[in-house]
Design goal:
Blueprint lengths: L1 H24 L9 H4 L6 E9 L8 E11 L6 E8 L5 E11 L4 E8 L4 E9 L2 E10 L2 E13 L2 E9 L7 E11 L11
Antiparallel strand pairs: 1-2, 1-10, 2-3, 3-4, 4-5, 5-6, 6-7, 7-8, 8-9, 9-10
Length: 194
């Protein structure tokens, strides 16, 4: 009896050791981006925006341009966007932004850092051909709800509009609108892997 029990224990230990060695040799691979990330590939490539800022909260208003280059961040979970804007009398500035998707909250994410010292955080949703990004910021000590809307008009263009509300979202005023056009190559269609 004791010999059989000892043999069983040794066999069980050998099986467990083999399982540990096998799992150490085949660690799980890196996480993969979900299907929601695929929708962000639309924004890849080189873009030029023609903008018109309305006089008001954002300054004296006027016309401006912005150029942007968007590409996958290694790993394929985020799109990184480098842009430079020339807003005429309102000045020039550069930004770096990251687009992604929050699987917990089921919303797209946007984080932008500007050479003017501003940090913009927005949450996005897409319905059909329209992306809507919402944000909350302080303007002159008052809370402003922002809404940035991108309506896709073709594989290489979209109309854009930035609206703000100072009354908690009951009434929105358009602060800026314009058009974005893709130029040159579209960039890598598939997210890069590790």
């Amino acid at each position: 009896m004791k010999k059989a029990s000892k043999k069983t224990t040794i066999t069980l230990a050998a099986v467990m050791l083999a399982a540990i060695i096998a799992s150490a040799q085949n660690p799980p691979g890196p996480p993969k981006p979900g299907p929601e990330i695929e929708k962000l590939k639309y924004f890849l490539g080189n873009w030029k925006q023609s903008l018109e800022v309305k006089p008001g909260l954002m300054g004296p208003g006027g016309k401006g341009t912005e150029t942007a280059h968007a590409e996958w961040l290694p790993g394929g979970f985020f799109v990184v966007i480098h842009s430079a804007a020339d807003m005429g009398a309102m000045g020039k500035f550069t930004t770096i932004a990251f687009l992604g998707y929050n699987t917990e909250d089921k919303v797209y994410t946007y984080d932008e850092f500007a050479s003017t010292g501003e940090h913009t955080v927005a949450k996005g949703t897409v319905e059909g051909d329209t992306w809507t990004w919402t944000s909350v910021s302080k303007e002159g000590g008052k809370t402003m709800n922002g809404r940035f809307i991108e309506k896709i008009t073709s594989p290489n263009s979209y109309d854009l509009k930035f609206e703000g509300s100072m009354d908690g979202g009951a009434t929105y005023t358009t602060f800026m609108d314009g058009k974005a056009t893709k130029s040159g190559g579209a960039g890598a269609e598939k997210p890069p892997q590790h």
